[in-house]
């Protein structure tokens, strides 16, 4: 199932999404700048299941998705959650 990730980060030089679906790899899923609006986006094919994720801004700042519910990751940060079913993706 395809899931679109979007983050408003106007001052960023690089944005990626890392999560349980890519073993938290900072380089596996970069977002592309959508014009000059400060919006970054990517679409990923994710397997069915519940996935935790966060955006990584400029390789060092981890940011929870403001459009999705977040949970404590146990290390002082918040991870966002998305559930992928055969019918589509849903925030939890």
Report the average pLDDT across residues: 93
Judging from the principal axes of the Cα atoms, what is the shape? globular
Unreliable residue runs: none
CATH topology, by name, is Immunoglobulin-like
Task: Tell me the number of helical segments per DSSP (H or I, 4 or more residues long).
Answer: 0
- Give the topology string: H per helix, E per strand: EEEEEEEEE
Give the name of the CATH superfamily: Immunoglobulins
Largest sheet: 6 strands, antiparallel
- Report the sheet-strand fraction: over 45%
**Under the CATH scheme, which class?**
Mainly Beta
Kindly provide the radius of gyration, computed on alpha-carbon positions and rounded to a whole number of angstroms: 12 Å
* Reported CATH architecture: Sandwich
Domain module tally: 1
Give a count of the beta strands, DSSP E runs of length 2 or more.
9
Q: What labels describe this entry?
A:
9 strands, single chain, mainly beta, six-stranded antiparallel sheet, globular, Immunoglobulin-like, 0% helix, 92 residues
Describe, in plain words, how this protein is organized in 3D.
This protein has 92 residues and is mostly beta strands. The protein is built from no helices and 9 strands.
